Predict the structure.
Amino acid sequence: MVPIVIGMTFVSFVIVKLAPGNYFTQLELNPSISKETIEELKKLYGLDQNLFLQYFKWLLNALQFNLGYSFAYHKPVLDLIKERLVNTLELTVTSFVLSWLVAVPLGIVAGVYRGKLLDRLITLFSLFGISLPNFFLAFIFMYFAAKTGLFPIGGVVSQNYDSLPWWGKVLDRLWHMALPLSVLVIGSIAGLLRLVRSTIIDELNKDYVKVAIAKGLPYRVVVMKHAFRNALNPFLTLIGFDIAGLLSGAALVEIITAWPGMGRLMFEAVMSQDLFLVMGSLYIGGIMLVLGNLIADILIAINDPRIREKEVEGRVV
C-alpha cells in the first residue's frame, strides 16, 4: 500500500508542476504585488527549490498529515478537507447504502425471473439509468428544481437549520441532499443491477445448482444460500472500488448541483492551481483507494474459503 500511495502522489506532483503556470502566475498579473513579494512567497513555501526536493519535503509532511497551506483559501489544507469531507461522505455513503439495498434484491429477482415481464421491466430501468450520464441527469433535475421550487438548489442546510428540532434537522439535510443523491443512486443502481443479474443467471446455469434442485432443496434456498454466495466475489471487489470512490465518485454531480463537497473543492483547487490543496485531496483519495482494495480482499477471503486455502498453500510452497 505504501509504495502505491508514494508512486501515485509522485506522479501527480510532477504532472501538477509540469502544467503551465501556477498560483503565483496569477499574482504576477496584479500590478499592486511586486516581484520581490512573489519571490519571497515562493521561498516561504519552498517552491523555489528542485522539483524532487519539493516533493520529498511535501511527502515528509504528508506522512504526518501536515498537508500544507492553501494559497487560494489562506487556510491549512487539512482544515479545508475536513470541512468538505463530511458533506461528501454524507452524500456518497448514503448513495452507496441505498444503491446496494435496492440493486441487489432487484438483480436477484431479475436473474431468477429471466425473460419474464418483471425481468424486462427491471432491465428497462437499468438501461435507462446507464444511458443517461450522471451530469446530464443532474442538469435535468436542477432544471426541474428551478422550475418547480420543490427542492433547494445548492447548500447543505437551510438558514433556520439551528432552530429546528433534531428530526427537523435530519429532514432538512435530506431535502437539500435530494437532487445529488437521486442522481448518484439512479446511476449506481443501473450498473450494479445488471452485474447482479448477469452473475446470478450465470450461477443458476451451473451444475451444482441443478444437483441441489434435483436433491429436493427449495429453490429459494438454492438461490440465496448457494448461488448468491458464490456470486458474491465480484460484488465484494466492486465494494472496494466503491469505497475508493467515496471521495471522488460524486465530483461532477457536486459541481453541477452546487453541493459543497470534496468534488467542488478539488475543482476549485485545480482551476486556481492551488498546489498543496490539489495534492492534499489526491493524497486522501489515494489512501481511500488502497484501503478500499484492502477491504475488498479481506471480504473476499472471508466469504470464499477457496481463496484462503490458495493463500495458505502458496505460503507453504
Observations:
- The CA atoms of residues 166 and 172 lie 10 Å apart.
- The chain has two domains: 2-63, 80-147+180-316.
- The first helix runs from residue 2 to 18.
